[in-house]
Specification:
Elements (H helix, E strand, L loop, with lengths): L1 H14 L6 E7 L5 H12 L5 E5 L12 E7 L11 E6 L9 H15 L5 E5 L6 H15 L3 E6 L5 H8 L4 E6 L9 H15 L4 E6 L4 E3 L12 E7 L4 E11 L4 E6 L7 E10 L4
Parallel strand pairs: 1-5, 1-6, 2-5, 6-7, 9-13
Antiparallel strand pairs: 2-3, 3-4, 8-12, 10-11, 10-13, 11-12
Helix pairs in contact: 1-2, 3-4, 4-5
């Protein structure tokens, strides 16, 4: 099964001395085993060094809520990714990289910078966004900025060919890994149900906050004139540019200059910016 494949692959990579310290970037299409491999690598490596994971799979997040890049330090090699204590998140604003390449790149870079203070080895799990010039440009740019010591290309056939052509011209170590054929593809419906369950889990113990619009900046990548913002996902950002939490707009009272946001417990006085995303969700 894919767990045996991932554990065996991780052990082989470590025994060859390919992963010691620095950044390991994992690329591949959806349902190729990237997340399973990232977890296996973290488990195997954590016994001999400090390991951090950056979860950039914004549509199927395991660390932090969907629409964010999250990071965590692997202190217990036996623990599941979804059980790790979230060290921090960086808001992208949507569950797909399409139309949000700049936000995704910035979020990955910020999370890597944060986790590098606590981890020698950083493993980056990525979304299955690999088709077309935009995908190639995204991962070339991420490589150029972060300069990972190792890139693991997990593929069924040659679907990463265009991306790897550009990466091979750069100064980085590439390892091609054959994806196990037995991984079942997830349907769009199953992916949506998973996202909804992750959002529900994240907002489980949330409460309502009244925020004065005069006290914060509003950041958005689109014209919101006349558009309802109720149930819109937002980031609550402090004066350092760090996302303290993801929130959900419960009410927008423009005539009173007040926005009501649902979020987990935090010091609302620290919030200096509300970043409005594209996703709207309903939490029971």
């Amino acid at each position: 099964m894919s767990l045996d494949w991932a554990d065996n692959t991780a052990q082989q990579l470590l025994s060859k001395g390919l992963i010691q310290k620095g950044i390991c970037l994992i690329l591949g299409a959806s349902d190729t085993g990237k997340t399973t491999l990232a977890a296996a690598l973290a488990r195997c490596a954590a016994s001999s060094r400090s390991v951090g994971i950056v979860d950039a799979d914004i549509g199927q997040s395991h660390i932090g809520p969907p629409a964010t890049v999250g990071w965590a330090v692997v202190n217990n090699p036996q623990i599941d990714l979804s059980q790790l204590a979230v060290g921090g998140i960086s808001f992208v604003g949507d569950v797909t990289p399409v139309g949000h390449l700049l936000q995704l790149t910035g979020a990955i870079v910020q999370c890597v910078r944060q986790v590098s203070e606590a981890a020698e080895l950083i493993i980056i799990d990525t979304p299955g966004f690999i088709s077309g010039p935009s995908a190639a440009a995204l991962w070339w740019t991420v490589q150029r900025i972060l300069q990972p010591k190792l890139i693991l290309a997990v593929q069924r056939g040659e679907e990463l060919r265009d991306i790897l052509t550009g990466l091979r011209s750069l100064d980085c170590q590439l390892e091609l890994i054959k994806s196990p054929p037995q991984i079942p593809p997830k349907s769009p419906q199953k992916r949506r149900r998973y996202r909804q369950s992750q959002f529900g889990r994240y907002f489980q113990d949330s409460r309502l906050y009244n925020i004065s619009l005069g006290d914060i900046a509003i950041q958005t990548s689109r014209n919101l004139s006349g558009e309802s913002l109720v149930n819109r996902l937002v980031a609550l950002r402090d004066d350092r540019g760090v996302d303290m939490a993801v929130g959900l707009i419960a009410d927008w009272q423009g005539d009173r200059d007040i926005v009501v946001v649902r979020a987990h417990q935090l010091d609302i006085q620290q919030i200096r910016c509300l970043v409005i995303g594209k996703v709207s969700i309903e939490i029971p």
